[in-house]
Design brief:
Layout lengths: L30 E5 L20 H15 L7 E2 L8 E3 L21 E4 L6 E5 L3 E7 L4 E7 L1 H5 L2 H13 L7 E4 L9 E2 L1 H9 L9 E4 L2 E4 L1 H11 L7 E3 L14 H4 L6 E7 L12
Parallel strand pairs: 2-5, 3-4, 8-12
Antiparallel strand pairs: 1-13, 4-7, 5-13, 6-7, 6-8, 9-11, 10-11
Helix pairs in contact: 3-5
The chain binds zinc ion (ZN).
Length: 284
């Protein structure tokens, strides 16, 4: 068994009324997921990040409050040090809690985390970028992926699926994928470098996320990720995209564009429950 999980002293506050954002398609037995939000009910509006200059003890308070609301052990949370690249890291029992208490212990230089170990919550931070939560119910595996524009044009969504196939035998047609809140196509004005890298990058898809207007160029991050997932074999009706825009949602979410570079970050969490275990002999 996974040490630290079954004997954890963590208790869950089931009375929490914090506004956890959930994806309907991921609301299935054997899976825990939830997305934190920006709320005056918590210090720092519920910021989850140590990296934006906020008091660490208040961030830790928030991490415990959100863990209670979503129902996972905050001491086991795994986070990556996201760098807008395309590395997707395989998390096992030895990584449980990496990044839970400090930035220093997080998994370095990764923008995606995946695991087939029940009981380990994977988190991805965002504040305009697209957070992807991926579930393979057939093979008992999950992933949490950060897709900003660089990761998107470099194909991190497609890469995450391929990594799950290599590691867990995942077939794209089995996947269920939720996109958390992100900046919408109407808000995301970009420079020509984004369009250039999209058009000349490695992603092959029929999706056309670029819009040219008299105001300039706009890029649909959601469609660019959705398109590459469908091209990889994911069913269109197994992808659910939150329509909450981080920038134009009237402050319901953190937004770098809307609130400035020192704004907080929200976290999208996914975890296999112990009941989801299909490979009974693996940890004997
Ligand atoms: Zn918007």
């Amino acid at each position: 068994m996974l040490r630290g999980i079954e004997d954890s002293s963590h208790t869950v506050d089931r009375t929490s009324t914090l506004p956890v954002h959930r994806i309907g398609l991921l609301d299935v037995p054997g899976l825990t997921h939830g997305i934190t939000s920006r709320t005056p009910d918590l210090p720092l509006y519920g910021n989850m990040s140590f990296m934006v200059g906020d008091a660490p003890d208040l961030v830790q308070t928030n991490r415990e409050a959100w863990a209670g609301a979503i129902d996972y052990d905050p001491d086991l949370l795994v986070l990556g040090r996201q760098v807008h690249e395309t590395t997707v890291f395989a998390v096992d029992e030895s990584h449980a809690g990496s990044g839970a208490q400090s930035v220093e212990t997080s998994i370095r230089r990764v923008d995606g985390l995946m695991t087939n170990v029940p009981g380990i919550p994977l988190g991805v931070m965002a504040a305009d970028c697209v957070p992807l939560l991926i579930h393979d119910p057939a093979h008992g595996a999950v992933a949490a992926v950060h897709a900003g524009w660089r990761g998107t044009v470099d194909g991190i969504a497609r890469i995450a699926v391929a990594r799950m196939t290599d590691a867990y035998g995942t077939e794209p047609g089995d996947l269920t994928i939720g996109f958390g809140p992100s900046i919408c196509a109407s808000c995301y004005q970009v420079g020509s470098e984004v369009v250039d890298r999209w058009q000349h990058g490695p992603v092959s898809t029929t999706a056309d996320p670029v819009r040219v207007t008299s105001d300039g160029l706009y890029f649909d991050l959601r469609e660019a990720n959705r398109g590459q997932l469908i091209a990889a074999g994911v069913h269109p009706d197994r992808i659910e995209i939150s329509d909450v825009c981080t920038q134009c949602s009237n402050g319901a979410q953190f937004s770098r564009r809307g609130l400035g570079p020192r704004t907080g970050l929200f976290t999208s969490i996914i975890m296999l429950d112990d009941s989801s275990r299909i490979d009974q002999g693996r940890q004997s």
